[in-house]
Amino acid sequence: MIRPNTYITGDLCLSSDLGGSVTARRIELLEAIDNQGSISAAAKQLKISYRSAWDALDEMNNLWDTPLVAKQPGGSHGGGTRLTNEGRQLISGFKVLLTEYNHFTEGLNRNLDDFEKLQQNIRKLTMRTSARNQFQGIVEEISAGPINSEVTLMINGKERLIAIVTSESVGQLGLSLGSEAYALIKASFIILVPADQRFASSARNRLCGTIRELRHGPVNSEALIALNGDKTLTAIITEESAKAMHLEQGRPICALIKASHVILGVH
Fold first, then answer.
1. pLDDT, the chain, mean
2. Are 233 and 183 in contact (CB under 8 A)?
3. For residues 226 and 250, what is the distance between their CA atoms, to the nearest angstrom?
4. In this predicted model, what pLDDT tens digit does every residue of 20-60 receive, in sequence order?
5. Residue 34: which H helix or E strand, with range?
6. Cα–Cα distance between 65 and 98 in angstroms, integer?
7. pTM, rounded to two decimals
8. Are 60 and 94 in contact (CB under 8 A)?
9. Which residues pair with 150 in a beta bridge?
10. Within 111-176, where are the H helices?
11. 13-27, 138-152, 216-230, range with the lowest pLDDT
C-alpha cells in the first residue's frame, strides 16, 4: 500500500525503444547553441564538456530526418553553429509536450491506487538496445525469399543500408515499401578500410566519411565517423589495427557492414 505522502515526480524524456532521447537538458543545449552561435560556447554555458555536447547532438541527429544544427561558413569573425528550422520546431514542440506532461503527472498524483499497472507501463517505456549505431530510414525495396528477405533502407536521402532478415520478421514488423524503420548496427560488427582502397568484399554495405574522433585504448580503439547528412557511425577496432592503418582525425574512411549484421526495428 502506498503511503499518503508518496507522490510522483520526474522529467520529460522523449525516447525511442531503439535508443536515443530528447530531454529538457538537451533542449537547453539547443537553446544555448541558438543563443551563443557555437557548440563550444553553449557547452561552457551549461557547464558540460564539448564532447558531451557533441554526443547529445549526434544521438538526436541520428533519429531525425534532417539535422537539428548546421555549421555556418567562416568569415571575418570565424564560423559558428546555428539551429535549423527542425531544431527550433523541436524546442517549441517539446515545450508544448512539457506542459501536457506536467498535467499528466498531476493526474497521476491524484490516482496512485493502480500502482502495479503503472509499473508495468513504465517497464515498457524503458526498453534499450546495446547497438551503438541507430539510423532512421524508409524501406525502399524488399526482395522476398522463402526463408530470408533482403530489405533496402534509405537512411539519409542519399545512402542505403541493406539488411538480411527472415521473411517471417518482415511480416511481424509490418515492413512494406515506404514504411519507416530503424537500422541498428553494433560497433564491433563494422570493418574499416581506407576510402581510396577498392576490392571485392562480401559485405553488402559501404558507408564512407571522415574520422571525426579517434579514442585509443589498451586493447581496442573507437572511431567516430562523420557521414553525409550530419549522421555519425561508431566503429570498434583493435588498437593494433588502428596503428597499422595509421588512422587519425580527418582521414577519409569507409565502413563495411554485412547485410546480416544490420538489425531492423519499428516503433
1. 84
2. no
3. 9
4. 678 899 999 999 999 999 999 999 999 999 999 988 888 88
5. helix 24-36
6. 23
7. 0.56
8. no
9. 143, 164
10. 115-125, 167-173
11. 13-27
CB 221 within 8 A of CB 169: no
Residue 170 and residue 149 in contact, taking contact as beta carbons nearer than 8 Å: yes
Which residue in 162, 166, 215 sits closest to 187, CA to CA? 215
The one-letter amino acid code at 95 reads: K
Q: Is 214 exposed, middle or buried, given 0-12, 13-18 or 19+ CB atoms closer than 10 A? A: middle
Residue 151 CA, chain-centre distance (Å), reads 20
Grid coordinates belonging to 126? 524503458
Residue 73: CA atoms inside 13 Å, Cβ hemisphere, count? 1
SS3 106: helix
Higher pLDDT, 128 or 83: 83
Q: What is the CA radius of gyration of the chain?
A: 21
Contact 54, 39 (CB under 8 A): yes
37 φ/ψ angles, rounded to the nearest 5 degrees: 80, 10
Is 63:20 a contact under the CB 8 Å cutoff? yes
Q: What is the end-to-end Cα distance of the chain in Å, rounded?
A: 34
Number of CB atoms found within 10 A of residue 209's CB: 19
Instruction: Give the residue, 66 or 212, on which the prediction is more confident.
Output: 212
Is the predicted pLDDT of residue 241 greater than 60, yes or no?
yes
For 159-204, what is each residue's pLDDT tens digit? 899 999 999 999 999 999 999 998 999 999 999 999 887 777 889 9
φ, ψ for residue 18 (rounded to 5)?
Answer: -105, 5
Q: Can you give the pLDDT at residue 111?
A: 66
